[in-house]
Amino acid sequence: QVQLVESGGGSVQAGGSLRLSCAASGRTISTYAMGWYRQAPGKEREFVARIDWNADYTYGDSVKGRFTISRDNAKKTLYLQMNSLKPEDTAIYYCNARQVFTSTDYWGQGTQVTVSS
Questions:
Q1: Is residue 1 scored above 90 in pLDDT?
Q2: How would you label 75-86 residue by residue, b for 16+ Cβ within 10 Å and e otherwise?
């Protein structure tokens, strides 16, 4: 089992940057696909980015070219560098870990990101 704790959220003006972190505990994350999702008030949870166990990555269309996902398996930490932030990026950001062999999903508690215009 994996426990996930996000950090790094906050308030920033449009055009600014934030770096989110997701610390995993309990197991190695090397056999997990790791990802970020977000949910704005009144909206469905939205895919942001994913990085697979082999470091292949995928981004949602709305963040391509602005966000960068990375992972440090030794530190059991997932990162999301967010640049050129827009007000529409305002949401709670959730860290996800999916076990490669069982497809079991684990979620963090979320961290709030607020971008003001």
A1: no
A2: ebbbbbebeebe
Residue 82 pLDDT greater than 90, yes or no: yes
Residue spans of alpha helices (H) in the chain: none
pLDDT score, position 31: 87
What angle (nearest 5°) sits at the alpha carbon of residue 115, between those of residues 109 and 49?
A: 55
Q: Give residue 44's pLDDT.
A: 97
Can you say whether the dihedral through the CA atoms of 72, 33, 69, 95 is positive or negative?
negative
The strand pair at 91-99 and 111-116 is best described as antiparallel
End-to-end CA distance of the chain, in Å?
40
Q: What is the mean pLDDT of the chain?
A: 95
Instruction: Give phi and psi for 31, each to the nearest 5.
Output: -105, 25
Task: Write the DSSP string, 12-75.
Answer: EETT--EEEEEEEESS-STTEEEEEEEE-TTS--EEEEEE-TTS-EEE-TTTTTTEEEEEETTT
